[in-house]
Amino acid sequence: MAIGPAVSVDAARRVALGAQGFGAARPARVGVRELRRAVERIGVLQLDSVNVLCRSHYLPLFSRLGDYSRERLDRMCWGGGELFEYFWGHKAALLPVASYPLVRWRMEVVSRQVWDQPLHPELQVPWSVVVGMRRLEVERPGLVDEVLAMVAAEGPITAGEADRDGVRRKRSDPDPDPSTGRMWNWQDAKIAIEYLFASGKVAIAGRRHFERLYDVAERVLPAAAVDVDDDEARRELVRIAARSLGVMTAGELCGATKGHYPLPAATARRVVGELVDAGDLVPVQVDGVKQQSYLWRDAEDRPIDARALLSPFDTLIWNRDRTERLFGFRYRISIYTPEPQRIHGYYVLPFLLGDQLVARVDLKADRRNATLVVPTLTADATEVVEPLAAELQLMARWLELDRVEVTARGAFGRKLARVVN
After folding, report:
1. Per-residue buried b or exposed e for 62-80, using 16+ beta carbons within 10 Å of the residue's own CB
2. Gap between the Cα atoms of 169 and 1, Å rounded
3. Residue 171 pLDDT > 90, yes or no?
4. Is residue 223 helix, strand or coil?
């Protein structure tokens, strides 16, 4: 395959930011139309339970649009006709409802999996489901059908409400079951209902205090209006990923381990080749990158004048190696790092200014005192402080917090404290 024209790292960075929606000014008013367009541009909103600042799926839209109504986004989700919950790769995520027909084949892979046989190479479910289903098919072969009948009769319900016997395998047991998970204790009904979700038989109808509410899929999701061929669905999902990335290597696009939309190696090679032949991907060579790179067909290199705090789960920085290559910015999430080993804080957000990542900002919402707290700040230059202060003040208003309190030590922290007060 031809190497293609050369692209500088600076141009690649601008292309990546533009593809993610950072090339345009924030709108004066954010309604459903603006939210819909932003989600389509991003492609996927990753979900995460950590709420030290706010739920992660709200942040990417704030980063791109500024102040908007989280309640309006909530109404678009989980049965609101705009977004639905499923897996993007292995990540729990919100997707545009138009993507529902594109993931039906993945649900079928789960549904057809025989758990005492080798796993299908495109099976993507939590490992706790794999281990748990292997056990349940032996110990409690009728449980899945019982749980499905319960959801049909009583839904929407939580996994706890679907649990009638409270059977749990604690990790402290002499022979602990890996399906209990590392950070949670999944009861048998939870394993069964998560399998039903992954296989498309139940869907997420909403969330109660962020706990999933399950209902049968036909009461939540529209019938797939168009039957999409499995191969075309794969190609379209990779097209969505390519449009979101702008410029990328094949591994960054759909590699099995760090791909934006991961596929098995042989499938990924075939799909990339098909998209090149179709003109969707244009081969290029990014300076300093040994691997073949590709440009999305409509990608543009335009000046970027952005100002944004980025969620650790923002699609712009999903691939930490790509982030370091494009921005010269090494970033790792710290919430799972033991406190003595944390360098930049606990819930650390990169700060985007212009087309560069210029600071790491540890943030916490102290809701009891209506305060946005900055415990730690690491920045490269004092010029960062004033635009960062403006973004923090905007974020505080968006989160309905009354003030910003900077407790970060050092010269940057002291200057930021003076600016925000």
Report:
1. bbbbbebebeebeebbbbe
2. 52
3. no
4. coil
Nearest alpha carbon to residue 62 among 372, 320, 384:
372
Residue 4: DSSP 8-state: -
Our measurement of the distance from residue 206's CA atom to the centroid of its chain's CA atoms, rounded to an integer in Å, reads 18
DSSP assignment string, 89-149: TTEEEEEEGGGHHHHHHHHHHHHH--TTSPPPTT----HHHHHHHHHHHHH-TTHHHHHHH
* pTM of the shown model: 0.93
Phi, psi of 40 (to 5 degrees): -65, -35
| Strand bridging mode 306-309 / 356-366 | unpaired
Cα–Cα dist 215/228, whole Å: 24
Q: Where are the alpha helices (DSSP H) in 155-288?
A: 188-198, 230-245, 250-254, 265-277
**pLDDT value for 78:** 82
Which pair of structure tokens corresponds to residue 218?
């036909």
Length of the chain: 421
Per-residue pLDDT, averaged over 33-59, amounts to 96
Distance separating alpha carbons of residues 395 and 108, to the nearest angstrom: 41
**Token pair belonging to 5:** 């024209």
Determine the pLDDT at residue 183. 41
CA 204/CA 167 separation, integer angstroms: 23
The residues that bridge with 91 in the sheet, in sequence order, are 88
User: Of the candidates 376, 300, 304, which has an alpha carbon nearest to the alpha carbon of residue 343?
Assistant: 376
The C-alpha atoms of residue 21 and residue 37 are separated, in whole angstroms, by 9
Residue 156 preceded by cis peptide, ω within 30: yes
Structure tokens at 120: 């299908």
